[in-house]
Design goal:
By secondary structure, the protein is mostly beta strands. The chain has one domain. Helix content is about 10%, strand content about 50%. β4 and β5 form a beta hairpin. The longest helix is centred in the middle third of the chain and has 5 residues. It comes from Clostridium folliculivorans. InterPro entries: CBM46. This is Endoglucanase B carbohydrate binding domain-containing protein.
């Protein structure tokens, strides 16, 4: 499981946060560091909300579950 605290300044090698549009973008560097299979993201927002989301990586393909 990978946890990203949304209110921390973005770790630009792995993800970018667009606070104005409520978008978190995972970079190719992030996926290069992940093995194939299910990746569980757990996003912590400043509001206290926690969003858990699963994606699957297979080679260079990533799909939402």
């Amino acid at each position: 499981m990978i946890e990203i605290a949304y209110f921390i300044p973005p770790f630009s090698d792995a993800y970018n946060a667009d606070y104005n549009n409520n978008i978190v973008t995972l970079t190719s560097n992030f996926f290069s560091a992940c093995t194939d299979g299910i990746i569980t993201l757990k996003l912590h927002f400043q509001s206290g909300e926690v969003l858990q989301y699963n994606i699957t990586k297979s080679g260079t393909t990533v799909k939402s579950n």
